[in-house]
Amino acid sequence: MKPAVSISRDNFVVDGTPTHPGRTWNGHRVEGLLFHRRASSAAFADANPKTRDLWTHADGTPWDIDRNISEFISVLPVWRACGLDAVVLSLQGGPPAHANRPVPPWQSPIRPWHSPAFGGDGSLDPATQSRFDRILNAVADCGLVAILDLFTPGQAARLNDEAAVRRATDQVCRWLLGRGDENIIVNVCQGSGTHNHSHSVLQPERINELARQIRDASSDGRHLLVGASVADGVIPSRFVADVLFSQPTPGRGSLTFRGAIDGLRETTAFAEHPRPIVVCDGTGGDFDRPDSDIAIATETHISWGLGDSQALERAEWVPVNWQTDSPGGIAYLETVRSITGTGTWPTDHPDVLLSDQRRMHAAFALALRGLGLKADVTPAGAP
User: Fold this and answer.
1) Alpha-carbon distance 82 to 344, whole Å?
2) What is the mean pLDDT of residues 78-95?
3) pLDDT in tens, 2-44
């Protein structure tokens, strides 16, 4: 049975029960939080023949979209077993490389790689829809919530005009409502709290228009949950989004982070309509520090999720090794396991010592095996 997510003030509820019921951590309420992780490259595809050959698998074989999806799906039970509640997906994908990789140009209105999710007129690509049908089914089967970004900076600019953006939004709503899922939160666009988008309707000043379009879409009385980002800590009047996505604040444990959250909660719009605040692109290591971003987020009842970070040896840069993960990614899962009081890390295994990154890779492989899964790539240090 697919899970059903709903909202109760600033808490997430799954199947009628708040997430992590009754759980506290260091004296702070964990109940109602949604721990998550970005997986923008889960269905990565490149329609640009000039850059397509850049994306090969780690073993040197040509990029295989279905293989990448299969490897991503294979780790979902492990993520769930470690206490993760949701994954963040992106129809237009995320950056498959970092600024230091020789893929010109990195910072430009349109990235050189070409996500085929939408045509220039806003039509939803059938192949992309099919791939995400497979992924969304697997996410639901694991009891996870899916946060789905519609648009991505550098790719949304490929849509011809605002009419195309609105058409794409409408087609996605029809598709998702037709699926009948209740575990999906639609995020209008990644980075909508910034000015990185070419179309004005994706800018902070107008993002509420698309959020309203998604909220107004319905099928047999069913509606989609929608989230959107805000800019400069200002929630627009009559903000209709069910979930408030906040941009992460650089710097570990900064007063700026606390101040930004306090500022959002003190706004009239939030007081009139309390809603969950979510950070989808959290960065920073040293998760065990008391002043880490995830610790501060948990203390302030913010649903924090690991995003993409070069400092964390970003595991999502193509080629993606989902099953070996990065040391930072595994450390994050271990932190979530600790905060939520769940997880199946085999810490009592004589060959596993989680403070050692090589042993953490081994723990991940053992967890896969314990769930009857096979890692295609043997992690360093695995027995």
Assistant:
1) 6
2) 91
3) 899 999 999 999 999 999 999 999 999 999 999 999 998 899 9
Please report the pLDDT score of residue 123 as a whole number: 98
Query: 144 with 43, same domain?
Result: yes
Q: Tell me how far apart the alpha carbons of residues 185 and 147 are, in angstroms, rounded to a whole number.
A: 5
User: What confidence category does residue 293 fall into, taking pLDDT thresholds of 50, 70 and 90?
Assistant: confident
312 with 275, same domain: the answer is: yes
Count of the separate structural domains present in the chain: 2
Residues 267 and 375 placed together within one structural domain of the fold: no
The mean of the pLDDT values for the chain is 81
pLDDT at residue 317, rounded to an integer: 67
Where do we find the tokens 């992780």?
A: 37
Residues in the chain: 383
Structure tokens at 156: 């949304």
Cα 86 from Cα 183, distance rounded (Å): 9
Among 71-80, 168-177, 233-242, 320-329, which range has the highest average pLDDT? Answer: 168-177
Q: Is the dihedral of CA 316, 132, 90, 301 positive or negative?
A: negative
Q: What is the residue range of 365's domain?
A: 351-383
Three-class HEC string of the chain = CCCEEEEECCEEEECCEECCCCCEECCEECCCCCCEEECCCCCCCCCCCCCHHHCECCCCCECCHHHHHHHHHHHHHHHHHCCCCEEEEECCCCCCCCCCCCCCCCCCCCCCCCCCCECCCCCECHHHHHHHHHHHHHHHHCCCEEEEEEECCCCHHHCCCHHHHHHHHHHHHHHHHHHCCECEEEEEECCCCCCCCCCHHHCCCCHHHHHHHHHHCEECCEECEEEEECECCECCCCCCCCEEECCCCCCCCCHHHHHHHHHHHCCHHHHHCCCCEEEEEECCCCCCCCCCHHHHHHHCCCEEEECCCHHHCCCCCCCCCCCCCCHHHHHHHHHHHHHHCCCCCCCCCCCCCCCCHHHHHHHHHHHHHHCCCCCCCCCCCCC
> 């697919």: which residue's tokens?
2
Q: Are residues 245 and 365 in the same domain?
A: no
Greater model confidence, 331 or 248: 331
